[in-house]
Amino acid sequence: MRKFLYIIITAVAVLGCRTTDLQAQMPKQTGIVAHRGFWNCEEAGYAKNSIAALRCAQEAGFWGSEFDVNMTSDGVLIVYHDSDVDGKRIENHPYSEFKDIRIANGEVIPTIDMFLEQGKKYPETMLVYELKPHSCAEVEDRFVELAIENLKRHGLYEPERVMFISFSMHICEKIAMEHPQFTVQFLGSSKSPAELCKHGINGIDYNHMILTIHKKWHKLARRNNMSINTWTVNEEPAMRRMLMLGVDQLTTDNPIEARELMKTMKVSEL
Predict the structure, then answer these.
(1) Which of 13, 54, 67, 93 is the most exposed place for a label (fewest CB within 10 A)?
(2) CA-CA distance, 191 to 52, in Å (whole number)?
(3) What angle (nearest 5°) sits at the alpha carbon of residue 88, between those of residues 87 and 94?
């Protein structure tokens, strides 16, 4: 009987230690990132990657606002998700061919200069800057250089104001090597956190299903002191799973719903 009780007490103690360890690994707060801005509202005109969507995310007080950037053939950076506009590949055509095109709310496609002018008005809103993959390393090198130059010109070359995400490993590696003070999160699922660390990349931003499938990757990221973001988490069950997992940031098209769920779950909003 004593032996049996000893086994139970030991098991409870071990479980308690594991629970404590898990709680210690989990962040105290989670930041909501409005995916392509808080576009999903009347005030933004339902226009993704618009200046209005950025402003709405800022005014709503979300932790961050994500946006996508491509580079034209003449080196102008524009805030646009796809690599093509009306059948024209952005990196193969000059800005003059895109400057008059309107998006859903009537705005022109914003240049990065237009976008950053709005971005710097709210210092508390993190600008989650996605650099889209381009055709080759040489073009991506130029793309990163221009992105950094633009941030410096607008007084936004600050890790507290901007973080970087990309599906391009080359872009992530270049920023991590040349600007190590910034958070850089890899968006793809082809590399584990341990592999990314070897390349100096200090964050992950996986699709939420990847963190569900690869259950150890969250712990691996925590062990390597990596920031953990996840996309694009739009449905309540997925939001709940990611919040219970303890991600640092949750990227969603439905930030108001995420905020309400976090209140219900008693998860503090960063």
Answers:
(1) 13
(2) 35
(3) 160
The owner of tokens 């993704």 is 48
Distance of CA 9 to the CA centre of its chain: 43
Model pLDDT, residue 7 = 36
Q: What are the percentages of helix, strand and coil residues in the chain, rounded to 5?
A: 45, 20, 35
Q: What is the CATH number of the domain that holds 263?
A: 3.20.20.190
Task: Select from 186, 237, 184, 183 the least CA-distant residue to 212.
Answer: 237
Q: Indicate the pairing of strand 64-71 with strand 126-131.
A: parallel
- From CA 185, how far away is CA 143, in angstroms rounded? 17
Q: Do residues 252 and 239 make contact, with C-beta atoms less than 8 angstroms apart?
A: yes
Taking alpha carbons only, the member of 187, 250, 121 closest to residue 262 is 250
Q: Which amino acid is at 124?
A: E
C-beta separation of 173 from 167 below 8 A? no
- 212, part of any domain: yes
Strand partners for 129: 67, 164
* Token couple for 38: 């808080």
Task: Tell me if 3 is assigned to some domain.
Answer: no
Structure tokens at 196: 């990314």
Q: What are the mean pLDDT values of the chain's consecutive 10-residue runs (270 residues total)?
A: 37 35 57 98 98 98 98 98 98 98 98 98 98 98 98 98 98 98 97 97 98 95 97 98 97 98 96
The pLDDT score that the predictor gives to residue 25 is 46
- How many structural domains compose the chain? 1
Position of tokens 């970087």? Answer: 164
* Beta-bridge mates of residue 64: 33, 126
